[in-house]
Amino acid sequence: MSPNVSDGVTSFADLGLRPELLNALSGLGYEEPTPIQREAIPPLLQERDLVGQAATGTGKTAAFALPVLQRMPGDGRGAGPAVLVLVPTRELAVQVSQAFHTYGRALGVRVLPIYGGQPIGWQVKALGRGVDVVVATPGRALDHIGRQTLRLRDVETVVLDEADEMLDMGFADDIEEILQETPEDRQTVLFSATLPPRIEGLTGRYLRDPIRIQMGREAAAPGEAPLVRQSAYVVARAHKPAALGRVLDVEAPTAAIVFCRTRDEVDQLTENLNGRGYRAEALHGGMSQEHRDRVMGRLRSGTAELLIATDVAARGLDIEQLTHVVNYDVPSASDSYVHRIGRVGRAGREGVAITLAEPREHRMLKAIERATKQRIPVEKVPTIADLRARRLELTRATLQESLLGDDLEHFRAVVEPLAEEFDVMEVALAAVKLAYESSGAATDEEEIPEVAQRTGREGRDRGEATGRRDRRGRAPAQGMTRLFFGVGRSGGIRPQDLVGAIAGESHLSGRDIGAIEIADRFSLVEVPESAADEVIRALRRSTIKGRKATVRRERDTANKRSG
Ligand code: AMP
């Protein structure tokens, strides 16, 4: 596909979405569809099947949610759900449900997430009251089908979200079983970050003549991706403003543009940065031309140093003195990334592009690297110590400049009398301290916790790798507890089966699970101590690869071995 991010001719209204949805989107501050939305929404509205290759961060949830909401009868209360979304984890089930709820609020759509780890009785009651959209993990969906509390006869659309993750977690058979419970003439939509042969197999068996959309595949034309120093920081959402502050302090841009996804995000970040002592100006599509001209004037004259903007608002702006482009979120498509960073590094000037990614957006970052054929190294967020070192360095450079260039005679009258009383070195130290203190922007003195930058899949690979080394007898990682599962290699158990069972039945996601070791007759899995009891309770009630298994803390194993 070749989404043309720069011309932006398609709006949500052009896509023919109903007014309730358009209102919801503008209320959320979405200014225009992302490329995947632009490509996927029209065929989905025509009830075509679709395979979309898209990672988190592309806007894929709205791409499948909006078309099904478009068809929702405002009052049509069918007996069973009309839409079934299957997702790999509880975390995603909640997120996707929230998205449906937010977009479909004015339509009175009833959405229910169902996942393991939540009391099943409560879910049975909610299903009994009637729902339009069910967002489920496969294990729990099957459970309800078995109890006849989830009837799929009236399902019109099935969405398999993050299909590769679901297969990796051992849900392949469950998914097929569920699909067989749905009407044959349903619409089937599959989204996946990667399209390995197993996904193609599933597609061939269950999708009819699907439209195919691939994001992050389009290679940048030679010379298109500018030579700009690029880096990324992986930080949790809550720490993004502080992390951005740190990075800006270290980078000290002359002028920077910070891209956000929505109007609301632009407004909030602008306020936050001004509170932190930066001179930031907001620019988004909701502003009058006059206002925009004023903002640009302040940036050009140097009164403001940061422009916080959406893609739409920044389109067509040419800002000469721009040194830095910051992606406050990973852009929704790789050519949007290329387009944004193309604003710096022109005409031989130095340019820097910085991207803040949440841990779950790591894959999107990888997709951009593949498409641009350029590496985006992930750096550590500067620590307080780094920041101090950098500010000292800037102070030293400023003093050196002053020593070389300024006429300092004027100040002799201050230094000479002090030098009679103190050592000249001490006088210099005091002067440097004052210069240093007057230089820095406000720094928050709290450390920003480092986030492990790995996807669920890498987490599991890591588990398998450590599993090969013998971890028995060693203490589990800090904050983790090792659980014993009475199933092992001889029962065909693989790490992904354990991860699938745990993530499907408890509130943990794949990335919360630590080292896994699989022996012939049993397995050991590290889980966060705080969740150990929940996992034991949940897994005792369910099966792993169709078998009931003993599940308990590992301490017992150790006793048994020594006894
Ligand atoms: P997803 O890839 O579905 O996980 O979405 C990533 C993020 O982008 C979510 O926080 C959405 O709220 C946001 N988002 C989705 N579509 C748009 C849009 N058209 N404009 C701005 N933000 C969006």
The CATH class of the largest domain is Alpha Beta
- Could you tell me the CATH topology label of the largest domain: Rossmann fold
> Ions, cofactors, ligands: which are bound?
adenosine monophosphate
Largest sheet: 7 strands, parallel
Q: Hey, roughly how much beta strand do the residues contain?
A: 5-15%
Spatial extent as radius of gyration: 28 Å
Count of distinct structural domains: 4
Which geometry do the CA atoms define? globular
Oligomer: single chain
Q: Structural class, judged by helices and strands? A: alpha/beta
State the helical fraction: 40-55%
The appropriate CATH architecture of the largest domain is 3-Layer(aba) Sandwich
The low-confidence parts are: 1-8, 453-472, 556-563
Describe the protein in words.
This protein has 563 residues and is of the alpha/beta class. It folds into 4 domains: 12-215, 3-Layer(aba) Sandwich (Rossmann fold); 228-383, P-loop containing nucleotide triphosphate hydrolases (Rossmann fold, 3-Layer(aba) Sandwich); 385-437, no CATH class; 475-562, 2-Layer Sandwich (Alpha-Beta Plaits), CATH 3.30.70.330. It is built from 22 helices and 20 strands. The strands form 4 sheets. It has a 7-stranded parallel beta sheet with strand order 3-4-2-5-6-1-7, sandwiched between helices. It has a 7-stranded parallel beta sheet with strand order 10-11-9-12-13-8-14, with helices on both faces. It has a 4-stranded antiparallel beta sheet with strand order 16-17-15-20, with helices on both faces. Helix 14 links the parallel strand 12 (324-327) and strand 13. Helix 2 packs parallel to helix 3 and helix 14 (334-341) packs across helix 15 (362-372). Mean pLDDT is 85; it is low at 1-8, 453-472 and 556-563. The structure holds adenosine monophosphate. Adenosine monophosphate binds at residues 30, 33-34, 37, 56-62, 261-262.
